[in-house]
């Protein structure tokens, strides 16, 4: 028993000794192995850099082939000696170093090519940065850094110099790319905001608009890359939230748009417009609405159906406006030529409704219709045509009305009722009777005789509001001194602006006569025929004391009706 135990221990000791010897022999010298590994890594990095700098596969193939062969080689096995293994790693280190030197020589001979390629990359990066700056992206320090890289490339002499330039260009390009990504996220959020507006989600639009404006401000105020990750995260959250809200709103919005288009189509026959084409498209929209939609499909659906809803409303509005304009022009044509004022002062005849003629304000509605691009534009043209027609009829009524100027006129009351001005303060000006009456809550307060615009510069008919109040002010002629309409700088004590273009109600201290027919050439008791012997330049003139009273007894909320 005892002898067997000693024998067993001896065997174990021998096995462990052999194992230790074998392990030590297989490991070789650690420093030698490390040198080989470092040389291999340097060669690998240089190959990668060479590819990045534009060296072709064919050019690098001889070195690449040897590199792959060296990496796939296996170290020798030696049981009792490290020398074969050390020799292997020494040889490996030398061969990696030799390949590294050969590759450096290859790169050195191709330095003009490397320089040219880096110059192209630099120019491409500079162009990218300029384009982004034009697009409104923050430029940060890109111009300075690109100038520094240009200078470094100009003085580059070694491969390391070129590699540093290349690394710097890659970093700038990456930062520009990150900026563009953030900008794209902002564009996506803006598109969703536009879609929410098109969908009519008014309450959510305010929330989304606030988020977009905040994100956009943060982007423009960003001073470096460090702030972009948090901003991108915030943008992603806003985009996801907007997508959810829009997805949930799709059924209700599509249903509302279909009803809106249906209602518009039903109105077309009354405006003498054929609805057939719109009815066919309505059937297609109904089919689309019955199927599932994602955000892009919903956006296309809204763009198309909103376009048709606009077209339907626009056709009806345009047709109604055409009819209203025709009605107005027909009314002027029928009345004007039969109601001329013969002026014995100069022997000429003038249209009493000169303000409504095409040479003056008669084409206002036509011009608005021709320039209309939105429904609001078309509605404005229609409203203008209807106002011109109604006010011309008021003028026709007042022309035949013998009521004294200082009493309530039936045409005034019709104007107040029609324009819903029975409450509040209203100035009513009759062009054919050259009179002005001030009403408060439908009750006559005071009346005045006035002088309005001459035939060449008549006063504008319509319903106006006070645009400005000046006391005192100086009027300057818009005509050149050679024009018969020119006048010197004139001090005005009280002026109420009621229409763009300098149309005021104001005092005219140079006149002596006011009232009927003073808008035409006439003799004025002031003796100043040049300034006083004709109507104004479009303004409404009053004696100084009456203009002052009107100025101080009216305000910014006073409405003004001219017919």
UniProtKB/TrEMBL annotation:
Residues 1-27 form the signal peptide. SUPFAM superfamilies: L,D-transpeptidase catalytic domain-like. Gene3D superfamilies: L,D-transpeptidase catalytic domain-like. Pathway: Cell wall biogenesis; peptidoglycan biosynthesis. Keywords: Cell shape, Cell wall biogenesis/degradation, Peptidoglycan synthesis, Signal, Transferase. Residues 425-563 form the L,D-TPase catalytic domain. The active site is at 506 (proton donor/acceptor), 539 (nucleophile). InterPro entries: LD-transpeptidase, LD_TPept_cat_dom, Transpep_catalytic_dom. Pfam families: YkuD. The keyword Electron transport does not apply. This is L,D-TPase catalytic domain-containing protein. It comes from Dictyobacter halimunensis. The lineage of its organism: Bacteria, Bacillati, Chloroflexota, Ktedonobacteria, Ktedonobacterales.
